[in-house]
Design goal:
Layout lengths: L3 H13 L4 H4 L9 H9 L10 H10 L29 H13 L32 H8 L3 H12 L2
Length: 161
């Protein structure tokens, strides 16, 4: 219930569409991982599921799911990867050197695109050490709607089998 791309965002998107998952869904299964959600969809055990699109594409490429049999209903706006943070007491010069290194790693001799990875080991084309903190505001606001009360209601519904 704390996964951004397989729980918080999909639940928030349902809520944005006027759907209360705990009230409006006949049954809820908390599958536990993106791969489990995709497997449940592929096997017809669930009608809908939330997972990262990266995981869906990976499953399609691996032949784990037939895209002709599963329809993508919606995709969220891009979700920022978790930030890499540094302690504010670091000397300014060191902070700038670190930012510069991350911003230019994709141009570093000997570094290939396959070596640049983000959250969960997913390939990224580059890092952006200048991403403003305010860029996290909209995603944080969206996820805040899925509060402890909403989570508790969904967990309770999932336990009613």
């Amino acid at each position: 219930v704390n996964s951004t791309s397989s729980f918080l965002y999909p639940v928030a998107m349902l809520m944005d569409a006027g759907i209360d998952p705990a009230r409006d869904m006949k049954q809820i299964i908390l599958a536990g991982s993106h791969a489990n959600v995709i497997t449940a969809l592929a096997e017809g055990r669930v009608d809908i599921g939330g997972a990262s699109f990266d995981s869906f594409e990976k499953a399609v490429k691996a032949g784990s799911i037939d895209p002709a049999k599963v329809r993508v209903l919606a995709k969220s706006e891009p979700i920022p990867y978790p930030p890499i943070a540094m302690h504010p007491a670091l000397p300014s010069k060191v902070q700038q050197q670190l930012k510069g290194a991350f911003n230019s790693v994709h141009e570093t001799p000997g570094i290939t695109p396959d070596q640049i990875r983000g959250y969960g080991g997913h390939k990224v084309d580059r890092y952006d050490a200048n991403f403003p903190e305010s860029g996290m505001d909209a995603p944080a606001k969206k996820m805040t709607r899925v509060n402890d009360q909403v989570k508790a209601a969904i967990i309770k519904k999932a336990s009613d089998r």
